[in-house]
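// run 5 | inverse folding | seed 20
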């Protein structure tokens, strides 16, 4: 009698764990995508040797997502919010005889967009123009905004134009004019790859529940 009661309690506990895991997984289903970023796929450099993922003609500066940088993009598809945060290496172009590319300091970038339109699978576009942020080095802070008008202000997608056919990468581009009506290129232009995400806590709960049920079934077979 005691053995049967204990067995029933164990089965009930395992089932409860599975139920909690499934509920938690449903509530926190993969709504957040994290991307590692690389420099632009249009040839990776200008004629002066700047390789970049962020070009700011207004300030006369270029910044790279490669060369020791660690900036990432995070996209919350449920709330329509994306952010680019981390560090970017300043690209200084070629040396005097054009035999070597030069790089400067690591700057800290923080750029946030809201009101995004979800395109599925981690892709999105900004048709509202709510992007804003800065890129900073010590006391120097450069403003990053959004262009004053346009149908699309920022997009992250496999556009079939900048990337090789069948590529697993995304192509990202977004205008970040510091002031309305600027000429020249003030924009992010980069490649993005979805980073491997760890199993969430709900996933471990589900694994634990399945493992518990499996152990009980093996014990039942042995005692039968």
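// decoded
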């Amino acid at each position: 009698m005691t053995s049967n009661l204990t067995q029933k309690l164990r089965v009930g506990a395992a089932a409860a764990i599975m139920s909690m895991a499934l509920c938690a997984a449903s509530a926190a289903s993969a709504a957040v995508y994290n991307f590692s970023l690389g420099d632009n796929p249009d040839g990776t450099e200008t004629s002066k040797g700047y390789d970049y993922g962020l070009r700011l003609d207004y300030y006369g500066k270029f910044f790279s997502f490669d060369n020791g940088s660690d900036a990432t993009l995070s996209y919350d598809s449920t709330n329509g919010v994306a952010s680019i945060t981390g560090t970017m290496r300043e690209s200084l172009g070629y040396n005097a005889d054009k035999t070597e590319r030069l790089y400067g300091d690591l700057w800290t970038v923080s750029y946030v967009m809201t009101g995004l339109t979800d395109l599925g699978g981690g892709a999105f576009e900004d048709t509202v123009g709510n992007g804003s942020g800065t890129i900073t080095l010590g006391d120097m802070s450069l403003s990053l905004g959004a262009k004053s008008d346009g149908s699309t202000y920022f997009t992250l997608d496999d556009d079939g134009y900048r990337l090789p056919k069948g590529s697993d990468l995304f192509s990202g581009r977004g205008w970040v004019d510091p002031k309305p009506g600027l000429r020249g290129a003030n924009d992010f232009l980069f490649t993005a790859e979805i980073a491997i995400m760890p199993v969430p806590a709900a996933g471990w709960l589900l694994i634990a529940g399945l493992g518990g049920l499996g152990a009980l079934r093996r014990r039942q077979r042995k005692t039968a």
